[in-house]
From TrEMBL:
Protein name (record): MFS transporter
Major localization listed first in the record, in broad terms: membrane
Keywords for the protein's UniProt record, in alphabetical order: Cell membrane, Membrane, Transmembrane, Transmembrane helix
Compartments (UniProt record): Cell membrane
Amino acid sequence: MQQRYTQVFAVPEFRAVFAAHALSLLGVIVSEIALSVLVYDLTASPLLSALTFALGFLPYVVGGTLLAGLADRFPARRVLVVCDLVCAVCVAGMVAPGAHIGVLLALRCALALVSPVFQGTRMATLADILGDGDLFVLGRSLLRIVSQSALLVGYGLGGLLLTVVSPRHALLITVATFLASAALLRLGTRPRPARGGSGGALVGDSLRGARQVLADRRTRVLLLLFWVPPMFAVVPEALAAPYAAALGAGSTGLGLLMCALPVGTVAGELYAGSRLAPATRERVALPLVSLALLPYLGYALHPGLPLSLLLLLVSGAGSAYTLGLDQWFVAAVPEELRGRAMTLLTAGLMTLQGVGMALAGVAAEFAGARAAVTGAGILGTVCCVLLAGAARRTSATAGRPPGDRLATERRDGADHDMTGG
């Protein structure tokens, strides 16, 4: 039976998680803008100002790898509330008068270390609250829709906020949003026991969990399907400023180029979540992931602003493949590893998007923005087609326990097909 978004909101615990997500996301956006402006005011350095944004990506891989064990060895509600409180304390430290630039950047790194643990634990908690069926998929979709919508309005509202208050006062708003998120999660969700880690030191437990998750070929392929397409998809956004300049589109054109991909993503998710049955979403997932980056090839035709926007909208709509991946991933990961697996997923996703932005800049430096986007479309499509083929081959064993799948793959030599060794 097909579920609807309204049925997800009918679950009281999800409403609390949803509201907490919106609040913490608001806090993150305000803190990124305010901290960037504050660092520039203190240093007059565009490099250090930009570095505050980069630090939102780089520590993800560290926190998501070395701290992932927290998501399973402690009760989820406690982990979520403590993460929000740690974030509130970090931002409060940024507000302190006379805080040195090194302290500000270190606190920014601390926020990024905590984020993958929080997001991974929250994803695993959704499966506890909504089950691991269609309601979970729609719940994940709603959280992504909020995140994409925040990209459309959040930075603009943050900029307006800074015309009224100072950066340090804006950071106080972030402290309040993290505290409100913690209160919602503490009061709006019920306690559940820890899933249990493998014991021992936290870092060792986290690394063992990562090895266990990555040991299963099906899970490995699904993780790559979550990570690789966004790494290429961010290229037009990363190069929107030079591309808009090349078109002579001005600041209005730049804003439209930055909005087009998120608008397409939200539209695609809403349509797939509300109009397609679960079986259909799974059936179209691999074709969609194979085609999602193809519109970028249109940049080779030297499109004007309207056609460029259309290409980005269509590509964004193709990201509806994630609804099918969500269902496969939660089914592939054993429950006792779910928190660590979700944390690893989040860490890889954010890290590779940061890598994609950096590589886009390098490519554009040598070949220009248009050629860089076209190249991302070609190379990304090839990678996605190969990964879709690998996912299709693993689907034959998808319904079996991980141990059975691993045994079959070793007999068939399938592991060597994927890793090359």
